[in-house]
Write a structure and sequence with these properties.
This protein is an alpha/beta fold. Helix content is 27%, strand content 22%. Strands 4, 5, 6, 9, 10 and 11 form a six-stranded mixed sheet that branches. A five-stranded parallel sheet has the order 14-13-15-16-18. Strand 10, helix 7 and strand 11 form a beta-alpha-beta unit. Helix 7 packs antiparallel against helix 8 (303-309) and helix 11 (399-415) packs across helix 15 (532-547). The longest helix has 21 residues, at 562-582. It is globular, with a radius of gyration of 25 Å. 57% of the residues are buried.
Length: 694
């Protein structure tokens, strides 16, 4: 497929834009700042372009990230839904009647099913079994999510009345949303409280303890129905404000679906009428980026931008989201994606205009994708991307923070990075518990004059019930913005204007992922303190969030050993951070390791080395290019390295030699950028800043 890199103007219908304000020390752009239109033809697949302008044409220099900021690049680009649909394609009408002037695609009047539907019967059992997953309630208090029930009903009706379809259709809805009251031990004393926990995200649905094994069997097609297609919708609020968490959940569920042999699809939902939280194009862009960088084949059904482009007369109004008309449009889009023809093929007569628009959207998206530059939308999971060789920190001294500190030190020892308590402000980061109701004086501190960034984590529950309640505590509990859950912390940061300085550490998500790998894994080392391996997972997450780097060792041979369990905690911490930061389902573990912890500067014509390798095997050759932002003071040799699937884990050494040109103590930043046709490895970059003296 041919791709182009396009920085589009804000007025473009399908521009991937957002009005969120950027800022802070990571160099994000301001509100609404979009570069001029630039098109680069005949470029290899670059929908995952890692830098703001990795192959700059010269006309967007103002939007190119600084070297200290290069690690955040995948957040700066996403794949927009290129449907090509505009309101002119669906003429405005007074009611929801048919568009007489829009030609329908020719329909085969025979009894042979459309090729797409026939091919979608993946297990060839004569039944087209489709599961539609979505959340009827949003995590935002009192707001509708994007419910699956109406979509499933409309899709069933379309398939049942399709005269060309000889397959038996079975369409089922699965509502993510539920709530459950659980006894929770709160605080170190373990005082019992009855808290209500809520489920809104794909990630929480997947790890929710009740029905966990049955749910996994269902996704594998072993729960009574062998699914051919599983459609993943999501709460648009989570997609808009926490896109990385949406990507993490979508990758987790889609991987399980693919493991069972079914085809996962991403259905792009939209906010209910009157909600201007994020444009349909932004939500669609997040979905396309998630799809492009997914672990498995995960096509997008682009219904949101189609709905958004419809004239008002075609949009019905209802309390539910989607409305009945919206549910039909979504179902018609799924049908067109599977069949290649309009849902008006079916004798189920709902609205041919919506069916025509749905087909046009699907056909437009199938014709190609564009990479669209956008103003940075800072989320509580955005990368910080410091290149500092020494990391300075502060915390309030609780036992929980000290435990995580031990895990962070363990990871940094592998990375050859020095960790220093305090320093001249502003230092790199502060971290602490997030809970406002329990010892609020021990929370993380937001103070840009003192700390570039501050990280908060939900205080662990008491171990009396914690191995259960921690798994329920990914999304929300008790009331809106209570920050005792992972997304509660993230949403509190957003609602209280703590961005761009605040970042969330999803302790409970890390525990849930560790628990899936090892069902015997406890979250605790005693009645109150977190398990040391959970501390290590948190430390690995923090290190990658701070720097974009990976320091994961080779996997130990014995999966029952303590060393392997520590390694797995490290791996999950790194991978979770990578997906939350960049929406990428595959984490390559780009390792650019300094020679030792004290190698922080170069004097005169002396040298220092970097060891470069990857933890994940690529599927194609990877080229790593190293460069200094001040080549007059340092020489880098070799400046280009090549890695293959066979030698990816074998370190290659790069030497940085001072040229004696520095007249006074200064700094240089060396950047390592990877390019490859393997999208997981393409256009990713990491950096280190060294001192240099005469």
């Amino acid at each position: 497929m041919r791709h182009s890199i396009v920085w589009m103007t804000a007025s473009a219908l399908l521009a991937f834009a957002c009005s969120e304000t950027g800022g802070g020390s990571n160099g994000v752009s301001g509100p609404g700042a979009l570069a001029d239109v630039v098109t680069v033809e005949d470029v290899a697949p670059l929908a995952d372009a890692g830098l703001s302008a990795p192959m700059d044409t010269g006309s967007v220099a103002a939007d190119v990230a600084s070297t200290a900021d290069i690690g955040r690049a995948p957040d700066d680009v996403a794949v927009a839904d290129d449907t090509g649909i505009t309101p002119d394609d669906v003429a405005a009408v007074e009611d929801a009647g048919a568009l007489a002037d829009v030609a329908e695609p020719p329909v085969d009047g025979g009894a042979t099913p459309p090729p797409g539907l026939e091919l979608s019967d993946l297990n060839e059992d004569g039944t087209l079994a489709i599961l539609v997953i979505g959340s009827s309630q949003s995590i935002a208090e009192g707001a509708p999510g994007f419910a699956p029930d109406g979509i499933a009903e409309q899709l069933q009706a379309i398939l049942d009345a399709d005269p060309t379809n000889t397959l038996t259709a079975q369409v089922q809805a699965e509502d993510i949303y539920t709530s459950l009251m659980l006894t929770t031990g709160y605080g170190q004393s373990g005082t019992d409280y009855d808290f209500v926990y809520y489920r809104h995200s794909l990630m929480q649905w997947y790890h929710w303890p009740e029905g966990l094994e049955a749910r996994k069997q269902q996704l594998l097609g072993e729960g009574g129905t062998d699914w051919d297609v599983v459609v993943l919708a999501a709460d648009p609020h989570i997609v808009a404000d926490m896109p990385g968490y949406f990507a993490l959940g979508a990758n987790t569920v889609a991987s399980k679906v693919a493991e069972g042999g079914a085809q996962p699809l991403l259905l792009v939902g939209w906010h209910p009428a009157g909600v201007a939280e994020a444009s349909a194009d932004y939500v669609a862009g997040v979905a396309h980026a998630t799809s492009y960088w997914s672990r498995v084949d995960l096509p997008v059904v682009p219904s949101a931008v189609v709905w958004d482009a419809l004239p008002g007369g075609l949009k019905d109004v209802a309390a539910a989201n989607p409305t009945p008309g919206g549910a039909y449009l979504a179902a018609a889009s799924i049908y067109s994606h599977l069949s290649g023809v309009s849902a008006s093929t079916s004798d189920y007569a709902y609205n041919d205009s919506l069916a025509t628009a749905a087909l046009a959207g699907v056909q437009g998206a199938a014709g190609g994708v564009s990479v669209v530059g956008l103003p940075a939308k800072v989320s509580p999971f955005s990368p910080i991307s410091t290149s500092a060789r020494e990391l300075h920190y502060n915390h309030t001294g609780t036992s929980s923070e000290n435990g995580i500190l031990g895990g962070l030190k363990w990871v940094l020892a592998k990375a050859n990075v020095k960790l220093i308590n305090g320093g001249s402000p502003p230092i790199e980061f502060n971290y602490g518990r997030a809970n406002t109701e329990f010892e609020p004086n021990k929370r993380y501190k937001i103070d840009p004059a003192q700390f570039d960034h501050s990280m908060g984590f939900p205080m662990q529950d008491h171990s009396g019930y914690g191995n259960v309640t921690m798994l329920h505590g990914l999304d929300k509990r008790r009331y809106d913005l209570e920050n005792g859950t992972d997304l509660g912390v993230a949403r509190y940061m957003t609602a209280n204007a703590e961005l761009p300085y605040a970042r969330a550490i999803p302790i409970r998500t890390l525990f849930a992922r560790m628990r899936e790998v090892n069902p015997e894994q406890s979250g605790y080392s005693d009645g109150w303190h977190m398990n040391k391996n959970l501390d290590k997972a948190a430390g690995a997450y923090m290190y990658t969030l701070l720097t974009g780097h990976c320091a994961l060792d080779a996997e130990p041979a014995d999966p029952t050993s303590g060393a392997w369990k520590q390694w797995m905690a490290h791996k999950l911490g790194y991978e979770t951070a990578w997906t939350l930061m960049y929406l990428r389902g595959k984490a390559p573990c780009f390792k650019v390791l300094p020679e030792n912890v004290n190698s922080v500067s170069i004097a005169g014509t002396e040298s220092a080395t970097l060891s470069v390798s990857f933890g994940l095997a690529p599927t194609a050759e990877v080229t790593v290019t190293l460069a200094s932002d001040d080549p007059s003071v340092v020489d880098i040799s070799p400046s280009t390295l090549t890695f293959t699937p066979e030698n990816h884990a074998q370190p290659q050494v790069v030497t940085m030699t001072g040229l004696g040109a520095a007249s006074a103590a200064t700094e240089f930043t060396v950047t390592a950028e990877a390019t490859s046709i393997d999208t997981a490895f393409d256009a990713i970059a990491v950096a280190w800043t060294y001192g240099i003296t005469p």
